[in-house]
């Protein structure tokens, strides 16, 4: 897979503003700062800001009033999240795929080491994240956080400070892959159940000290996600 779909600067700004809306930092009717201020805020050119605003306008997220400014339109949070997710998938498919490839390599080894080295406290943390995932059910934000906590807890359970720091440095990118893939998986109750079952099986293997099984289950889990990403239409 090549990186021909490298994300453009204006697409990144488009995503950032969408995320500000989804997070509630920008609300319906709010006026965005002038282009020059946005350019300074995001450390990009005014041209990139202008292109991002045009994309937001085409997406029906903002209204550009000549001589008056750019305003957030009456758009629901659900719509914003859908649009943001679609853009992330369209612009980041290669990045997502490559990140999952890296996770496959690193996290399978983390699971194997965790099964050999996890102590009671480590296992409790992993178990808590699994329980939080179950409680979250189809609640997207809570599910994403529980999923991320699960993988970070396993990394900490390796008791390898270098590996733990490496995984921690990748946390924002891991969250991106989790957000994209969980949105797809939340499309059906069966997928939600399967996702939970995959994580629970990994935890059980680690808790029983089954190193090779934990490694294999983690590999299978991430490979399945990669296959789902590659099969999605963009």
TrEMBL record:
Signal peptide residues on this chain, from the entry's feature table: none
CDD domains: WHTH_GntR
Record keyword Ribonucleoprotein present: no
Keywords attached to this entry: DNA-binding, Transcription, Transcription regulation
Pfam families per the UniProt record, alphabetical: FCD (PF07729), GntR (PF00392)
SUPFAM superfamilies found in the cross-reference section: GntR ligand-binding domain-like, Winged helix' DNA-binding domain
Source species: Solibacillus faecavium
Record's keyword annotation contains Transcription: yes
Domain of life: Bacteria
InterPro entries, sorted: GntR_C, TF_FadR/GntR_C, Tscrpt_reg_HTH_GntR, WH-like_DNA-bd_sf, WH_DNA-bd_sf
Name this protein carries in UniProt: FadR family transcriptional regulator
Ranges for domain HTH gntR-type: 7-75
């Amino acid at each position: 897979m090549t990186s021909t779909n490298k994300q453009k600067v204006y697409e990144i700004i488009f995503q950032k503003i969408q995320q500000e809306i989804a997070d509630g930092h920008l609300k319906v009717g709010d006026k965005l700062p002038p282009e020059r201020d946005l350019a300074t805020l995001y450390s990009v050119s005014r041209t990139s800001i202008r292109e991002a605003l045009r994309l937001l306008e085409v997406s029906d997220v903002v209204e550009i009033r000549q001589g008056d400014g750019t305003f957030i339109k009456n758009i629901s949070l659900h719509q914003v999240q859908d649009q943001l997710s679609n853009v992330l998938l369209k612009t980041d498919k290669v990045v997502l795929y490559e990140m999952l490839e890296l996770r496959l390599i690193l996290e399978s080894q983390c699971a194997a080491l965790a099964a050999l080295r996890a102590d009671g406290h480590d296992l409790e943390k992993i178990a808590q994240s699994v329980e939080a995932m179950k409680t979250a059910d189809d609640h997207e934000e809570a599910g994403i956080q529980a999923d991320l906590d699960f993988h970070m807890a396993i990394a900490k359970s390796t008791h390898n400070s270098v590996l733990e720091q490496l995984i921690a440095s990748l946390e924002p990118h891991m969250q991106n892959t989790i957000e994209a893939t969980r949105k797809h998986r939340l499309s059906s109750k069966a997928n939600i159940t399967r996702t939970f079952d995959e994580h629970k099986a990994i935890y059980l293997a680690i808790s029983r000290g089954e190193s090779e099984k934990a490694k294999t289950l983690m590999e299978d889990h991430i490979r399945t996600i990669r296959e789902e990403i590659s099969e999605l239409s963009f």
